[in-house]
Design a protein that fits this description.
- This protein is mainly alpha-helical.
- It has one domain.
- It is 73% helix and 0% strand.
- It contains four helices and no strands.
- It is globular, with a radius of gyration of 15 Å.
Length: 125
């Protein structure tokens, strides 16, 4: 990959925009968690509260790390797992239009994992 500024701006956009959008899905889950409301699906059979906790990690904590570019590649792994669960288990029987959003997020975060954060990140400072 070329080491020019435009490439690194593109990597920053790839990192920041999907992560900000992911926060819009995770923030309501975070609010549920801190309010003590643990009603949530149990897609992998570990219980509603642990599933909610893991979803908050994958949709709030890790996207924040990805936005600032801290431990970026490591932080993409929980997001990728969360989107795999959403696409394959939660929406597995649904039509493609329903699971499309999870698949798009999955693709974005796999690209971030493969390409890294770029120089406009804390990882590269």
């Amino acid at each position: 990959m070329k080491n020019n500024s435009l490439t690194h701006v593109g990597l920053a956009v790839l990192r920041i925009v999907p992560s900000l959008l992911m926060l819009t899905h995770g923030y309501p889950k975070f609010q549920k968690l801190i309010s003590g409301n643990f009603e949530f699906g149990n897609p992998i059979g570990i219980g509603a509260a642990p599933s909610l906790f893991l979803a908050v990690i994958g949709e709030v904590i890790c996207p924040i790390l990805i936005i600032i570019g801290l431990k970026t590649r490591f932080a993409t792994i929980p997001v990728i797992i969360t989107m795999l669960v959403a696409a394959v288990i939660v929406h597995g029987a649904d039509p493609i239009g329903v699971k499309e959003k999870a698949l798009l997020y999955l693709a974005f975060f796999v690209c971030i994992l493969l390409l890294g954060p770029g120089k406009y990140s804390l990882d590269k400072r």
